[in-house]
C-alpha cells in the first residue's frame, strides 16, 4: 500500500497548480484505501508477481476520489473525514473540474496496463457508478422508494467499484472465469455491506469517528434502509414522521426520526442485512486456496460490518 501511495503521488502531478492542490487535498485526507487494497489482495490471492496491480490500485482510488469530489458538490456537503470538503474550500467549479481530471488520469493509467479486459471492467464500472449517482438523485426526497430501489442504487453507486477492484486483481493473477466471478461476487456483496453500515452510522455514529455530521443523509432527503424499514413496519404516525423528514430534508429535526428508527428496530434490521451480505461475500471465496491474502480478504469483510467509522 505504501507503493500504491507513491504511485498516487506521482500520478497526481500536473503543471496546473490548482489541480495539484485540490487533488492532493482530497487524496491525502485520510481515506481507508479499501478499494485499492482489494486490487492488491485479490492479485496476491492468485499469485500475481508483476507490478501493474499498483497502477490499477491507484486507478481505482482516483475513480473513487473523483466520485467523492462530484458527490460533495451535488450534496452540498461541507465536511468529510473531519475536514472541510474540497468544494467548501476551493469552490464547486474547481471540485467538478478536478474530478474530471482524476477520471481522465485514471483512464490514461489503465491504458498503460495494455489489457482490454481491464479497460472493459473499469469502463463498465465507471458508467454504472454514474448511473447510480443519477438514480440516487432521482430518489432524493421520495418516500416511496422501496428497499429494492435502494439496494439498486448502492450496488450501482458504491458496490460496483468494490466489485471491479476485486475482479481486476483476479484478472491480473490469471484467474479462471469461475474464480474471477467469485471475486466479483465477493466485492459486490462486500461493497453493499459497507454502504449499509455507512447508512446506519448516519444515525448511530460519532461525528468525530465518521468524519461528517450525523444526519447528513436525512438532511439531503436520502431514503436509506433504516428509514425505508421504519416506514414499512412502524405505525401510521411513525411512518408519517419519516415520510415528512424525507420530503422536507429533515427540517423537523433529527431526534424525532431517530426515535422512530430506534422504536422500530430499524438499525437492527439494517445490520442483519449487512451481515447477510458478508456471509455471501465470504462464501464466494471460501474455496480459494488458503493464503495470507485470502485471510486478509476475510478480515476485511469482518471489518466492513464491525467498524465505527
UniProtKB/TrEMBL annotation:
<keyword id="KW-0460">Magnesium</keyword>
<dbReference type="InterPro" id="IPR008949">
    <property type="entry name" value="Isoprenoid_synthase_dom_sf"/>
</dbReference>
<dbReference type="GO" id="GO:0106350">
    <property type="term" value="F:all-trans-octaprenyl-diphosphate synthase activity"/>
</dbReference>
<comment type="similarity">
    <text>Belongs to the FPP/GGPP synthase family.</text>
</comment>
<comment type="function">
    <text>Supplies octaprenyl diphosphate, the precursor for the side chain of the isoprenoid quinones ubiquinone and menaquinone.</text>
</comment>
<dbReference type="GO" id="GO:0008299">
    <property type="term" value="P:isoprenoid biosynthetic process"/>
</dbReference>
<protein>
    <recommendedName>
        <fullName>Octaprenyl diphosphate synthase</fullName>
        <ecNumber>2.5.1.90</ecNumber>
    </recommendedName>
</protein>
<dbReference type="GO" id="GO:0046872">
    <property type="term" value="F:metal ion binding"/>
</dbReference>
<dbReference type="InterPro" id="IPR000092">
    <property type="entry name" value="Polyprenyl_synt"/>
</dbReference>
<dbReference type="InterPro" id="IPR033749">
    <property type="entry name" value="Polyprenyl_synt_CS"/>
</dbReference>
<keyword id="KW-0479">Metal-binding</keyword>
<dbReference type="Pfam" id="PF00348">
    <property type="entry name" value="polyprenyl_synt"/>
</dbReference>
<keyword id="KW-0808">Transferase</keyword>
Amino acid at each position: 500500500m505504501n507503493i500504491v501511495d507513491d504511485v498516487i503521488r506521482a500520478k497526481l502531478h500536473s503543471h496546473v497548480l490548482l489541480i495539484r492542490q485540490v487533488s492532493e487535498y482530497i487524496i491525502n485526507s485520510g481515506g481507508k484505501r479499501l478499494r485499492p487494497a482489494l486490487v492488491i489482495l485479490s492479485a496476491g490471492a492468485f499469485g500475481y508477481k508483476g507490478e501493474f496491480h499498483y497502477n490499477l490500485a491507484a486507478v481505482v482510488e482516483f475513480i473513487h476520489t473523483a466520485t467523492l469530489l462530484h458527490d460533495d458538490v451535488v450534496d452540498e456537503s461541507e465536511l468529510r473525514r473531519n475536514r472541510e470538503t474540497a468544494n467548501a474550500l476551493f469552490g464547486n467549479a474547481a471540485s467538478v473540474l478536478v474530478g474530471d481530471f482524476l477520471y481522465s488520469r485514471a483512464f490514461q493509467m489503465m491504458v498503460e496496463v495494455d489489457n482490454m479486459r481491464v479497460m472493459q471492467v473499469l469502463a463498465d464500472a465507471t458508467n454504472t457508478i454514474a448511473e447510480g449517482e443519477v438514480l440516487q438523485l432521482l430518489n432524493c426526497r421520495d418516500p416511496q422508494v422501496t428497499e429494492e430501489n435502494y439496494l439498486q442504487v448502492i450496488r450501482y453507486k458504491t458496490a460496483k467499484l468494490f466489485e471491479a477492484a476485486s475482479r481486476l486483481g483476479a484478472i491480473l493473477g490469471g484467474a479462471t472465469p469461475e474464480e474471477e466471478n467469485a471475486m466479483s461476487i465477493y466485492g459486490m456483496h462486500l461493497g453493499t455491506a459497507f454502504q449499509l453500515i455507512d447508512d446506519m452510522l448516519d444515525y448511530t455514529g460519532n461525528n468525530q469517528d465518521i468524519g461528517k455530521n450525523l444526519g447528513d443523509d436525512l438532511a439531503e432527503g436520502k431514503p436509506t434502509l433504516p428509514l425505508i424499514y421504519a416506514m414499512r413496519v412502524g405505525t401510521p404516525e411513525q411512518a408519517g414522521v419519516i415520510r415528512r423528514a424525507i420530503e422536507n430534508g429533515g427540517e423537523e429535526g433529527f431526534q424525532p426520526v431517530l426515535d422512530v428508527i430506534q422504536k422500530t428496530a430499524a438499525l437492527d434490521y439494517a445490520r442483519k442485512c449487512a451481515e447477510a451480505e458478508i456471509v455471501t461475500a465470504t462464501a464466494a471465496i471460501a474455496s480459494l486456496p488458503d493464503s495470507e491474502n485470502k485471510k486478509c480478504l476475510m478480515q476485511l469483510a469482518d471489518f466492513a460490518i464491525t467498524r465505527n467509522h
